[in-house]
Amino acid sequence: MKKMNNEKIKNAVQMILEAIGEDTSREGILDTPERVAKMYEELFSGLHTDPKECFSTSFCDDHEELVLVKDIAFHSICEHHLVPFYGKAHFAYIPKDGRVTGIGNFAKALEVVAKRPQIQERMTSTLANTIDETVDPIGIMVVIEAEHMCMTMRGVKKPGSKTVTTAVRGSLKNDSAARSEILSLIHQ
């Protein structure tokens, strides 16, 4: 497993502070490079974890109807500007052969995948692919709604705007009625 190089991060942050004209010997800034390096260890810890490990537990419960786990809050970092995006994720799946997975597994996988520099579209697809490959459901739909600070703090400066992405696998891919039902349940 590749480990983060805290020394390189500290040096890079020091250089950024100097480049923007900040006094790096100022009391409030003095320990910033070290604090940022420690923060990056946490924010990017998902780079070194496989989200498939979150789905090691399943149960036989003879349930083959829709399961929806919704409104799971998350935050991640945009790979284009290294600023946060945050929002809610929703997971809908139809178990196969009565095998269900623990509902907390969705939150765990979301936490792993969110702790990477990325774009929301890839995050959504990664989660859907992970669930499809590990849980092996009849169908899966992942919906992510997020506000991107790169659109709020800079550029177009439009606070409150949201981006919604979906990824659909299995039987739900061609079932528009089921997808509509899921979206309706998400927004109730």
Automatic annotation (TrEMBL):
GO biological process: one-carbon metabolic process; tetrahydrobiopterin biosynthetic process; tetrahydrofolate biosynthetic process
Entry-linked InterPro entries: GTP-CH-I_C/QueF (IPR043133), GTP-CH-I_N (IPR043134), GTP_CycHdrlase_I (IPR001474), GTP_CycHdrlase_I_CS (IPR018234), GTP_CycHdrlase_I_dom (IPR020602)
Record-level Gene Ontology MF annotations: GTP binding; GTP cyclohydrolase I activity; zinc ion binding
GO cellular component, one term: cytoplasm
Keywords, comma-separated and alphabetical: GTP-binding, Hydrolase, Metal-binding, Nucleotide-binding, One-carbon metabolism, Zinc
Keyword Metal-binding: yes
One Pfam family here: GTP_cyclohydroI
Annotated binding of Zn(2+), by residue: 78, 81, 150
GTP cyclohydrolase I domain span: 9-186
Claim: Ribosomal protein is one of the keywords in the record: no
Reactions catalysed: GTP + H2O = 7,8-dihydroneopterin 3'-triphosphate + formate + H(+)
PROSITE patterns in UniProt: GTP_CYCLOHYDROL_1_1, GTP_CYCLOHYDROL_1_2
Gene3D superfamilies attached to this UniProt entry: 1.10.286.10, 3.30.1130.10
Pathway: Cofactor biosynthesis; 7,8-dihydroneopterin triphosphate biosynthesis; 7,8-dihydroneopterin triphosphate from GTP: step 1/1
Its EC number(s): 3.5.4.16
Assembly and binders: Homopolymer.
Family per record: Belongs to the GTP cyclohydrolase I family.
Name assigned to this protein: GTP cyclohydrolase 1
Organism expressing this protein natively: Oceanobacillus limi
